[in-house]
Amino acid sequence: MEAASNSGPWGLAGRRAVVAGALGGIGQVIAAAFREAGAHVLLTDLTDASAAVEAVNAAGFDPRMYAACDLTSEDEVRALCDRAAEAFGGLPDIVCVHAGVVGSHPVVGYPIEAFDELMRVNLRGSFLLASEAARRWLAVEAPGTLVFTTSWVQDVPWPDIGPYSASKAAVRSLMRTFARELAPRGIRSNAVAPGIVGVGMARRQWDTDPAYRSRAQRAIPLGRLQTPESVADAVLFLASPLSAYMTGATLLVDGGASLYPMDE
Ligand SMILES: NC(=O)c1ccc[n+]([C@@H]2O[C@H](COP(=O)([O-])OP(=O)(O)OC[C@H]3O[C@@H](n4cnc5c(N)ncnc54)[C@H](O)[C@@H]3O)[C@@H](O)[C@H]2O)c1
User: Fold this and answer.
1) Overall domain count for the chain
2) Entry's SUPFAM superfamilies (predicted)?
């Protein structure tokens, strides 16, 4: 591994971070922010390594620091963790459980296959990655840090994404259980809950669904779509020594979206 180039304000220079969902709209920015902070980053996402080369190169990463993994597969998650240990020359210090999917259908008539697939990725996938990472930290008594990504809609019903909201509420609950069970062993577990971000899944819906767009335009007290950099700042904070006394916390970074009913 090359030496860390700078330390920045975060105290993350030389730390080793796995970012899941690293090819997504927000994940790319999180991975870049860790690199800027001087951390070593292993990117992972669904895309095959050969198909991801261009995107990984374009993002300024060495393609050897990308590993494909379907987080819903136990075997693939184990292989990912092996790969991280090999690439870093040791266990990661930080695992960002960030991948996720959304589906948009009214709650009545929501297709059950879409419901099951969403829960597989958001809940089972998050659980598999976090528990495999934690199992390895426990085995060598390493003080790792988990950072989950939930959403402001974990607490606020937003039309047509009921199962997504429920999956994020469940991830928040899991995050707190990891925190509760593992704090005595020095492992921290926290979550970032973003609002309506101008890239990734919300952007796709904003661009293609006029009803969503008009609702979303009224939903953000700060009056503008969220930047992915603001999510990355929160993730880096929770990964860093600056949050050393935080575990089991959800950092809500949503421009105030959760403050008022958005349909009025
Ligand atoms: N965009 C927003 O407004 C917003 C708001 C709140 C929370 N979030 C959360 O932020 C995270 C990233 O969202 P985004 O907006 O960048 O969406 P995105 O679709 O651009 O990125 C999600 C990434 O997860 C990956 N992924 C999906 N299924 C996977 C699987 N089975 N295994 C491994 N990777 C898988 C996708 O390939 C994709 O690259 C998600 O957890 C999402 O729920 C997004």
Assistant:
1) 1
2) NAD(P)-binding Rossmann-fold domains
Q: How far away, in angstroms, is 38 Cα from ligand 1 center?
A: 24
Q: Report which ligand 1 atom has the smallest distance to the Cα of 26.
A: 16
Q: Is residue 21 part of a domain?
A: yes
Write down how long the chain is. 264
Q: Kindly list the distances between the CA atom of residue 18 and the CA atoms of 14, 32, 63, 103, in Å, as whole numbers in the listed order.
A: 13, 12, 14, 26
pLDDT at 2 over 60: no
Distance CA 141, CA 33 (A): 27
Domain that holds residue 174: 16-254
Q: To test ligand 1's pocket by mutation, which of 23, 42, 168, 201 has the most ligand atoms within 8 angstroms of CB? A: 201
| Whole-prediction pTM | 0.96
If you average pLDDT over every residue of the chain, what do you get?
95
Residue 8: the pLDDT is 73
CATH number of the structural domain spanning residue 124: 3.40.50.720
Q: 9 in a domain, yes or no?
A: no
